[in-house]
Design goal:
This protein has eight helices and ten strands. A five-stranded parallel sheet has the order 2-1-6-5-8, with helices on both faces. Strand 5, helix 4 and strand 6 form a beta-alpha-beta unit. Helix 4 packs across helix 6 and helix 7 packs across helix 8.
Length: 229
């Protein structure tokens, strides 16, 4: 998979891409991540990419010219899945991560300033948000989305593909986990997990996931129950 990120601050990604799962995925050539500073495509003498909004108002607006020129400079951009990051976008969820992990080429635009020139939206296939809050820029959101997509690409995490049981993968929150010691400050690991009966353990984990989802995320619980009908 190839991921191109259009950003004004490519250095923000340096540590993120050089550590942990992302670094291994890149090293093993399971994903290729390219950072494109679209400020370099500005035709302004001072490499300006924003301007004041028509009609007045607070803040500055990201202009269309530098974004367009950076986008069309990417080989194969026409067929790529092009994502615009904005608080107005559809909330990014785990099922979207799975769907996008099957795409050969993704392009992500990190926004800044007060907002986008509306004509930028016409250049992208979809708009995405990581939550109902506003960040200074789209770089952190881009890292979160790239991470979510990359970790479910086959082979990135490992042969066991443990992400299949992650929270949200099936509209359920993940079940409780325990490890050694079996007792800590009077609190014991549930006996069922020490039984060695994998069938009963699987049933316990499912029941715990359902219980936890019902208590913490009623919206997901309703989705899950409808799927069982």
């Amino acid at each position: 998979m190839r991921i191109d990120i259009l950003t004004l601050f490519p250095k923000m990604f340096e540590g993120y891409l050089s550590e942990s799962i992302m670094a291994r995925a890149i090293k093993n050539e399971l994903v290729e991540v390219n950072l494109i500073d679209f400020r370099e495509f500005s035709k302004s003498k001072h490499k300006k990419v924003d301007d004041s909004p028509y009609g007045g108002g607070a803040g500055m607006v990201l202009g269309v010219q530098s974004v367009y020129d950076a986008l069309v400079s990417i080989p194969g951009y026409e067929k790529a899945n092009k994502i615009l990051l904005t608080p107005q976008g559809k909330r990014f969820e785990q099922l979207m991560a799975y769907r996008l992990s099957n795409q050969p080429h993704i392009i992500i635009l990190c926004g800044h300033y007060e907002g986008y020139d509306e004509r930028i939206r016409d250049l992208f296939d979809c708009e995405a948000s990581i939550g109902d809050f506003v960040l200074t820029g789209g770089e952190i959101a881009a890292m979160a989305i790239v991470d979510a997509i990359t970790r479910v690409i086959p082979g990135v995490i490992g042969k066991d593909e443990s992400h299949l049981n992650d929270s949200f993968s099936n509209n359920l929150l993940e079940y409780p986990h325990y490890t050694r010691p079996s007792e800590f400050m009077g609190k014991k690991v549930p006996e069922i997990l020490l039984s060695g009966n994998h069938k009963l353990i699987k049933e316990w984990r499912l029941n715990q996931s359902i219980k936890r989802t019902k208590e913490r995320r009623k919206d997901l619980y309703i989705k899950y129950m409808k799927e069982q009908e």
